[in-house]
Structures are given as structure tokens and as C-alpha cells.
Design a protein that fits this description.
This protein is mostly helical. The chain is 84% helix and 0% strand. The chain is built from one helix and no strands. It has one helix at 8-80.
Length: 87
């Protein structure tokens, strides 16, 4: 029997809904913490990757310079060589 809008079943339903909302909020907070942690880890790994890419670019530049020097030496040797008799 309902008196003044205070139906016990209605209050039980409302209490159940509040409990569900509270539990979902706790789950959301935990998931949010995991996402923030993942974001920090991801950012750290991206920074390390960026540093490695910078080092790799420097190594590539050094390799290119050495290859250019080798090409110049070989080119000079080929130019100084007399034409072969077969040509």
C-alpha cells in the first residue's frame, strides 16, 4: 500500500538503481586509471622511438657520406684507367 508516494517497492528499485550507478562509476574510475597509465606508457615509448629514429637518421647520414666518398674514389679510378683493348 502506497502512502504519500512512499511505496517500499519503489524505494527498493531506486536503491537498486543507485547501487548500479555507483558500481558502474567505480568501474569507470578503474578503467580511466588504466587508460591514463596506458597513455603514459605509450607516450614514453613514443619518446624512445623518436630518439632511436633520430640516432638512426644520424647513422644513415654517416653511411651516406661514406658511400659518397667510396663512389668518388671508384669513379676517379675508373676515369684514370686506360680504355681496354676489347672496346
Amino acid at each position: 500500500m502506497a502512502t504519500n508516494g512512499h511505496d517500499p517497492d519503489r524505494l527498493d528499485r531506486l536503491e537498486g538503481l543507485v547501487e548500479v550507478l555507483f558500481n558502474r562509476h567505480l568501474e569507470f574510475e578503474e578503467e580511466h586509471k588504466r587508460l591514463l597509465t596506458a597513455q603514459v606508457v605509450f607516450a614514453d615509448r613514443m619518446n624512445r622511438l623518436d630518439q632511436r629514429m633520430d640516432r638512426m637518421a644520424e647513422f644513415q647520414k654517416h653511411s651516406d657520406e661514406r658511400l659518397d666518398a667510396l663512389i668518388a674514389i671508384v669513379d676517379e679510378i675508373v676515369r684514370k684507367r686506360p680504355p681496354s683493348a676489347d672496346a
